[in-house]
Amino acid sequence: MGKLELSLSNLTTRASKLDIDGPDTGKDFGDISRYQKYPFARFNIDESQPDVIDKASPEYRQRIIKVLDALEESHHKAYSEYLVLKAEFIAKVEEEGQKKWNAFILNPAQGHSEFKNLKLDGFDRISYHDHIRDETIPVEMTESRCELYLIEKYMIAGRRELARLDKSDDFIYMRNEWVKKLDDEINRSFRTISEYGLRCESCDSSNLIYD
Taking the model in full, what pTM does it have? Predict the structure, then answer.
């Protein structure tokens, strides 16, 4: 498997020296000039063929803006629904936690074999039973969060695309922020693997993407 190195400092340094439409089209993945080619500046990989839409055209820009507006409206609604579901879940977890405490304070030893060294002399143990359960994240909440994730993913991609079209410095910043976030996600995945006893070298310091 090949290694694709995403150097944030390298990209920023090069960006200050290169025009996004400049002639330097090397294959260095830290080179901003790669964004003037497929798949960033074109839909069709074959440059000898006409593209389905010219990405430099006003029509393409309007298409992005229209979709972003729809995504933002959808995000507002989805986020509001997610907050309600999350608040309901937190309330249920809180209630179950309180019921566990109620049972525990009446009889700390009941149902807790882990407390082998817990000694309470002169403590009246009161038997008490209540319906207690461990709350799990509901399917509706998971689906809602997944919807939000996808909406946010495409909103970020769309805003980054507009910045690229504008040849704005914001594009470099947004691209670097995206890389940092992805790098964190990769490192978290590697740490999770290592927790299960699988070999993981340089999990905390890796800044590589494997293709």
Answer: 0.67
